[in-house]
Amino acid sequence: MTVTLAVLVALIFTALGTMKVLALPRARELAAHSGFSVIAYRGIGALELAGAAGVLLGLATPLLGGLAGAGLLLLLAGAVITHVRNEDALPQLAPAVVCALLVIGYLVVLL
User: For the chain, which ranges sit under pLDDT 50?
Assistant: First the structure.
């Protein structure tokens, strides 16, 4: 179960982080909507990529996986706060909440 959740979390955050780091058009739209510069959004993407790598490395070193998961949860808390601050509807908020639940699930099985 740990491997499955780790791979799922890593795939999701690799995709999200890559989109932001490459500043793809959708990432630029989301950055503007959220009130972030493209450079700041790229930084968030880099943190997501680091978190994804840490979760995968956590398969060999659980402490690293736990720290990476905690970091991803902090990023997701920021995402939820940003969505709430922007008064986004549930469809815009739901992905951050679902990702947070996945990361929490990963952390629970990691323990």
Answer: none
Angle (CA) 47-51-53 rounded to 5° is 120
The model's pTM is: 0.94
| Per-residue confidence (pLDDT) for residue 95, from 0 to 100 | 95
| Cα(110)–Cα(43) distance, integer angstroms | 27
Is the Cα dihedral 97, 4, 111, 17 positive or negative?
A: negative
Q: Say which residue the tokens 């058009």 belong to.
A: 25
Looking at this protein, which amino acid is placed at residue 101? L
C-beta neighbour count of 90 within 10 angstroms:
8
Distance (Å, whole) CA 70 – CA 64:
10
* Domain boundary assignment for the chain: 2-110
